[in-house]
Amino acid sequence: MSSANAFYPIGTPGVPWGEAEKAEWLARQVRHRSYAEDVLARVDALRQRFDVEQYGQLDYAGERYPLYAIRNRGWRDGLPTVLVTGGVHGYETSGVHGALQFVERHGGDYEGRANLLVVPCVSPWAYERIHRWNMHAIDPNRSFRENSPAGESAALLQLVAPLRGRFVLHIDLHETTDSDESEFRPALAARDGKPFEPGEIPDGFYLVDDSENPQPAFQQAVIAAVEPVTHIAPADANGQIIGSEVVAPGVIRYPLQALGLCAGITGARYTTTTEVYPDSPRATPQQCNDAQVAAVRAAIGFALAHPAG
């Protein structure tokens, strides 16, 4: 197909959306699940063992979404600091639930060894609507930059800013889903007035390294830890995953900061974005959560064993 209009019902082919098209898009969004029940209740249950802080709030058309971060206790300036983020894209479910599962089961393991900061759901409005964008049709994961147009991104940047220079690791938990190809990429093309060019969804788990700061041994340690939990995505016929060269099994690279991606916000030596494939017939929702947890634990283990020189 030559245009996004063949796939997406909003807008005129070749013409970027204006306010009317964005309003039409917003009117189509439906709440499917509850941030309060699925996320905030689990965060509240962690307060006895961890420090929970509200770092911001989104106010969307009268709906208020408090934003929370979880810290392990016993923070010390001399310890390496680790950031785990999930739900930057709200529809990527295992990013949120994997982050929470990690804290619930393993968050206490690092007390006295690392300062652990976990933000399990960066984009709660999108989590409820199982969407990639926020209510303004903005992708938070292309918006981590100064004067960000996305409230989700701006709030996280403000949380992280005082700690820049202290992070040894940032792992950002994501999914690549079939709906990327059926809904979200066509919507992006329509929004921006560009033609939609069909792609291929990889079947399996993969990582996105930073092309400006590649850490191949670190990435491979994470892949090795995840492989017993869920299968690793193979390269396609062109030696690529989602249009990027596969530089090692299950690893591609992006310029994280230049693209405004979440994994580029800390300046940490070790950074990665996980990509779980929840639509595979070979993976259950629990396997997806477990894969995220395995990735986080392996990433922290490697970073603590190989501190910056």
UniProtKB/TrEMBL annotation:
GO terms for molecular function: hydrolase activity, acting on ester bonds; metallocarboxypeptidase activity; zinc ion binding. Residues 31-309 form the Peptidase M14 domain. SUPFAM superfamilies: Zn-dependent exopeptidases. InterPro entries: AstE_AspA_cat, Peptidase_M14. Pfam families: AstE_AspA_cat. GO terms for biological process: proteolysis. It comes from the Bacteria. Keywords: Hydrolase, Metal-binding, Zinc. Its cofactor is Zn(2+). Coiled coil: none annotated. Belongs to the peptidase M14 family. This is Peptidase. It comes from Marilutibacter maris.
